[in-house]
Write a structure and sequence with these properties.
Helix content: 40-55%
Order of helices and strands: EHEHEHEHHEHHEHHEHEH
Radius of gyration: 17 Å
Shape: globular
Structural class: alpha/beta
Strand order of the largest sheet: 1-2-3-4-5-6-7-8
Bound molecules: 2-phosphoglycolic acid
CATH topology: TIM Barrel
CATH architecture: Alpha-Beta Barrel
Largest sheet: 8 strands, parallel, barrel
Number of domains: 1
């Protein structure tokens, strides 16, 4: 089954409103003719409204980099799914390794955030991935499997229509060391088997699994050719319109 690729840019904590608007205005014409790939940009919260406005009527969707599990409340510094939907934002990244590493994100909080995102109608990009130590110890599948089971706990098969999994080996994020296509494909195939065991073959065959970790224009095509790689979650290279556009086009 051929899945529609989804290429998402994770802008992390880069770009002011003015810079974000300029970046997306540069990107729009470069990808305007792309019809067969879902294109998403995920700027900081402060940029979301401006980027939604700048991308109106285009083929670029907008996502947040996080979303809280509660509808509202005393959660200083957090943003709810309803707040995102009102802008309106369509996607949210959940459980990025930087959230796990620096902000005490756990599989439980990933699961809580995911349920709130889905209830509000957001499409979620749920991130999983092992550290270098874990890979060296041969624990990649145990770690990724545990993150998947915990992160997706309590979901019904129908919920998976709005879930994208991003496999992002921590050792490949921001390091310039991309997983080889074979390394990535192995873990993607494992993830799909795990989804099949949990939700059935149909859901597993339909779920998109992105690769993330130092995806650059020259690496993208070979990664995206792998049978179980259905897109990319792109950090550094998404901050340059030409590079991100080249990665999107590698998915066409
Ligand atoms: P990178 O980041 O492309 O800069 O490695 C990927 C990510 O963190 O999503």
């Amino acid at each position: 089954m051929k899945r529609r690729p989804c290429i998402a840019g994770n802008w992390k904590m880069y770009k002011t409103v003015a810079e974000a608007t300029a970046l997306v205005n540069d990107l729009k014409p470069l990808v305007a003719d792309v019809r067969t790939v879902d294109i998403v940009v995920c700027p900081p919260f402060t940029d979301l409204a401006a980027v939604v406005k700048a991308t109106a009527g285009s083929n670029i969707a907008v996502g947040a980099q996080n979303v809280h599990w509660a509808a509202s409340g005393a959660f200083t510094g957090e943003v709810s799914a309803a707040m995102l939907r009102e802008i309106p934002v369509a996607y949210a990244i959940i459980g990025h390794s930087e959230r796990r590493q620096y902000f005490a994100e756990t599989d439980q909080t990933v699961n809580d955030r995911l349920k709130a995102a889905l209830a509000a109608g957001l499409t979620a990009i749920v991130c999983v991935g092992e550290t270098l130590d874990q890979r060296t110890q041969g624990a990649t599948e145990t770690v990724v499997g545990t993150q998947l089971d915990g992160g997706l706990a309590g979901l019904a098969a129908a919920d998976m229509a709005k879930v994208i999994i991003a496999y992002e080996p921590v050792w490949a994020i921001g390091t310039g060391v991309t997983a080889t296509p074979a390394q990535a494909q192995d873990v993607h195939a494992f993830i799909r088997r795990r989804l099949a065991a949990r939700f059935g073959e149909g859901v597993a065959a339909a779920t998109r699994i992105q690769y993330g970790g130092s995806v650059k224009p020259d690496k993208a095509a070979e990664l995206l050719r792998q049978p179980d790689i259905d897109g990319a979650l792109v950090g550094g290279a998404s901050l340059k319109a030409a590079d991100f556009a080249a990665i999107v086009k590698a998915g066409v």
